[in-house]
Amino acid sequence: MNTPPPVGITMGDAAGIGPEIVVKACAQGLNAPCVVYGDAGALRRAAGALGARLEITEIAHAGLASGDAGRIEVIACGGALPPDLPFGQVNAAAGRAAYEYVCAAIDDAQAGRIRAIVTAPLNKQSMHEAGIDYPGHTEILAERSGTDDFAMMLANDELRVLLVTIHLALADVMERITPEAELTAMRLADRACRQMGIAHPRVAVAGLNPHAGEGGKFGREDIDIIEPAIRQARDEGIDASGPWPGDTVFMRARRGEFDIVVAQYHDQGLIPVKYLGVDHGVNVTVGLPFVRTSVDHGTAFDIAGKGVADQASLIAAFDLALAMTP
Q1: Whole-Å CA distances, 161 to 69, 151, 155, 273, 287
Q2: 222 touches 243 (CB < 8 A)
Q3: What is the mean pLDDT of the chain?
Q4: Which of 41, 113, 114, 314 has its CA 20 to 30 A from that of 255?
């Protein structure tokens, strides 16, 4: 029986809490072998500060991973960072390195050298300082893997939410709300739930306007765009319903009436999930040719280097990646 390849963890921005939560997660113990795409020096500094008794070694490629629980095996792919890199500050070198970690993990995932990708947070401003202009992980993953239909899903023990639009100014959302975008989101929501072991997903679609438009009183997008897309999804065998008013649909899903909510824009969907707490929240990019999960928080520059960052979201992301892969 073949042993699955290791899970790839990207270290994230070294000026943030990424190295710390990676060390803490590995010290606590993970449920499968992993390799870390990152900087060995940054991980050693974090391990030393935390008093973690872990050996940190560099390996040339994922195929050399030993699976030793007392060791963090690092694939160095972004150039060595300064040993005294300041915590909690925007830094172009750290931003470029974090981007390179993600790119190397994507390439290995596509080649089947790792089982899935689990990402620690990167800092958009640090990447921008390095001349890398992406809104976040999702767009990097999609572009480098050549994926056209993708979506961001946030999940925790109580709620799953998938977004129709992601990183956009609110003023630009309307032009992206199309029947095609709605149908794609419902297909991806159904697919994600099935990957998570739900045999017959119930997909609720949140309305765009207050009260889902109130019969056209508050806008016709829900009637003219979202409702026809739901009908088409149902014709395809997807158990989709709505559009439901955005102020109640998440509560109904949390109570067990639906398995996932398709939200129309970033804050509509992410506020309910994050309100429940980011400690165990997981960000999933749905539609990629491989599984990618991530922590549901940022680089936390305000607490970086202080030893107080919580690794729970990283461990939850790791466990969900395992659940979504054979």
Answers
A1: 33, 10, 6, 7, 15
A2: yes
A3: 94
A4: 314
